């Protein structure tokens, strides 16, 4: 039996894992990228990915740095220039325009499959990366100088470092006995793609409703991606509605800001939770993205947070590689953990705080929330700061 040897093996070929693979392979670090599916599979022109990310300018610049942004644009992205937020209670509203911060756009809304395909096309042109599709990790054994990795296709891989980019239910995290902490939000998000009656005006719309936020993100070809968060029973009821009744309910929930809607494709629902791990690495093993943190989607920061993990880990690995140090040593990997843990915990805390603030139903809190949005909306300085934060700069 032949055993292939790499410097880094990454399990999980989604946005975060594939980005890390690009950053390393571009610099000549040998990488094996292993994914349970096949991200290069073709899709029909009339289909839509329910998984959509609002990429910040910082994330866009990351993709530009290793030459995949042009492919993402070719495959289909939508610039996001403005943001409009309003409350169901009273008249609190907030309107932000990237032009006020001196930028052409705040970010870009892209279907996850588009971003991942562009990354995989790049990887397949890099000599330092081998990709394994429709392949799962069966197990691994950490030795003194390498990791022995068993794959579902019968192959064995040796690597100096194993990276778990395999999502919130990470098998690598579980096999490493790394605990997670957090709680369920007792909410379920409904996701769908719709065609609005009126133009989305390159604007991200978000209304805070009693049960949770309704986000309408601008998408390619004039479409809109929605994330509608409610109590689980409300989401299940909305999923069970006929297409026409669902579109009517959505138009009413959005106060007809974009008129009526036509449903394009399927609807989906997923439960929301906050989950995090206090341990990011062990000897020859490290976690990135959702494998170490899952946050509330109300500000769309989950993907951007994972991309920052990928960039931070790549820098640590490349620096160690250049210095001829062991890239799989816990001493090296702890640098990545120290650099990322603070930012990740701050973002998780902010998203949890926002969720509780805008989910609160007490009259005093609702009045404070609504008037606070009004005050911010009158301050060019505060709006500029919020815009810069949303852009990730």
How large is the radius of gyration?
A: 22 Å
Shape: elongated
Oligomer: single chain
- Based on the coordinates given, report the CATH architecture of the largest domain: 3-Layer(bba) Sandwich
Helical content band: 25-40%
Instruction: Note poorly predicted spans.
Output: none
Fraction in beta strands:
25-35%
What's the helix-strand series? Answer: EHEEHHEEEEHEEEEHEEEEHHEEEEHHHH
Name of the CATH superfamily of the largest domain: FAD/NAD(P)-binding domain
What is the β-strand count? 19
Report the top-level CATH class of the largest domain.
Alpha Beta
Please indicate the count of domains. Answer: 2
The DSSP helix count reads 11
The end-to-end span amounts to 49 Å
In terms of structural class, how would the helical and strand content be classed? Answer: alpha+beta
Salient structural properties:
393 residues; alpha+beta; FAD/NAD(P)-binding domain; 2 domains; 8-stranded mixed β-sheet; 19 strands; 36% helix; elongated
Question: How would you explain this protein's 3D organization?
Answer:
The chain is of the alpha+beta class and 393 residues long. The protein has 2 domains: 3-40 and 124-180 and 277-353, FAD/NAD(P)-binding domain; 78-108 and 184-273 and 360-391, D-Amino Acid Oxidase, subunit A, domain 2 (D-Amino Acid Oxidase, Chain A, domain 2). It has helices at 15-25, 57-65, 69-75, 112-123, 171-175, 232-240, 243-253, 302-322, 330-359, 363-377, 380-391, and strands at residues 3-11, 31-34, 52-56, 78-80, 82-87, 93-97, 107-111, 129-132, 137-142, 147-151, 156-164, 181-196, 203-209, 212-218, 224-230, 261-276, 281-282, 285-287, 293-294. The strands form 3 sheets. Strands 1, 2, 8, 9, 10, 11, 17 and 18 form an 8-stranded mixed sheet that branches. An 8-stranded mixed sheet has the order 6-5-13-14-15-12-16-19, with helices on both faces. Strands 3-7-4 form a 3-stranded antiparallel sheet. A hairpin with a 4-residue loop joins strand 10 and strand 11. The radius of gyration is 22 Å and the shape is elongated.
């Amino acid at each position: 039996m032949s055993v292939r040897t790499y410097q880094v093996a990454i399990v999980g070929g989604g946005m975060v894992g594939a980005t890390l693979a690009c950053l390393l392979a571009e610099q000549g670090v040998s990488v094996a990228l292993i994914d349970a599916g096949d991200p290069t599979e073709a899709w029909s022109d009339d289909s839509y990915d329910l998984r959509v990310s609002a990429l910040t300018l910082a994330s866009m610049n990351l993709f530009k740095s290793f030459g995949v942004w042009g492919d993402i644009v070719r495959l289909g992205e939508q610039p996001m220039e403005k943001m409009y937020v309003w409350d169901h209670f009273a008249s609190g509203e907030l309107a932000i325009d990237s032009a006020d911060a001196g930028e052409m756009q705040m970010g870009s809304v892209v279907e996850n499959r588009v971003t991942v395909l562009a990354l995989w096309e790049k990887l397949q042109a890099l000599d330092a990366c081998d990709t394994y599709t429709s392949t799962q990790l069966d197990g691994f054994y950490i030795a003194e100088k390498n990791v022995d990795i068993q794959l579902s296709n019968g192959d064995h891989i040796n690597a100096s470092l194993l990276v778990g980019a395999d999502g919130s239910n990470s098998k690598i995290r579980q096999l490493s006995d790394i605990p997670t902490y957090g709680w369920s939000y007792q909410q379920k998000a409904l996701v769908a793609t719709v065609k609005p009656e009126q133009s989305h005006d390159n604007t991200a719309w978000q209304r805070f409703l009693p049960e949770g936020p309704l986000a309408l993100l601008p998408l390619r070809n004039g479409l809109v991606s929605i994330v509608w968060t409610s109590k689980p029973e409300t989401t299940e009821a909305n999923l069970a509605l006929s297409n026409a009744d669902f579109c009517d309910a959505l138009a009413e929930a959005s106060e007809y800001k974009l008129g009526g809607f036509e449903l394009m494709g399927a609807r989906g629902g997923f439960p929301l939770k906050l989950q995090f791990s206090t341990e990011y690495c062990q000897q020859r093993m490290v976690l990135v993205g959702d494998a170490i943190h899952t946050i509330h989607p109300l500000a769309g920061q989950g993907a951007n947070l994972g991309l920052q993990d990928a960039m931070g880990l790549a820098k640590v690995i490349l620096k160690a590689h250049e210095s001829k140090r062991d890239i799989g040593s816990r001493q090296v990997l702890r640098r990545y953990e120290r650099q990322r843990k603070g930012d990740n915990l701050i973002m998780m805390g902010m998203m949890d705080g926002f969720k509780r603030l805008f989910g609160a139903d007490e009259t005093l809190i609702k009045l404070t929330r609504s008037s606070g949005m009004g005050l911010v909306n009158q301050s060019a300085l505060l709006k500029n700061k919020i815009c810069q934060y949303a852009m990730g700069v």
